[in-house]
Amino acid sequence: MSRICTRCGKSAVRANSVSHSNIKKPRRQKPNLQLLKIEGGRARVCSSCRRTLAKKSTK
User: Fold this and answer.
1) Residue 38 contacts by C-beta under 8 Å, 6 or more apart in sequence?
2) CA distance 18 to 32
């Protein structure tokens, strides 16, 4: 299962981990994916999409 939001397509990005002595090591920033039931199925959506869906469902 890939770490990609099924709604917006957000995926992991490359960033640097910077130490106190300013040494940079590459790392990955992964999106905050959560399982959510949408239209009878389960989808992995990021937290920002989850908040948007919750907001739209109340109106």
Assistant:
1) 45, 53
2) 22
Q: What is the pTM of this model?
A: 0.77
Residue 5 dihedral angles phi and psi, to the nearest 5°: -70, 130
Residue 56: alpha-carbon gap to chain centroid: 19
Q: What is the pLDDT of residue 14?
A: 97
Separation of alpha carbons 14 and 12, rounded Å: 7
The answer to whether 44 and 31 have CB atoms below 8 angstroms apart is: no
* Amino acid, single-letter form, for residue 55: K
**pLDDT, tens digit, 9 for 90 and up, residues 18-54:** 999 999 999 999 999 999 998 889 999 999 999 999 9
Amino acid, res. 15: A
Q: Are strands 33-38 and 41-46 parallel, antiparallel or unpaired?
A: antiparallel
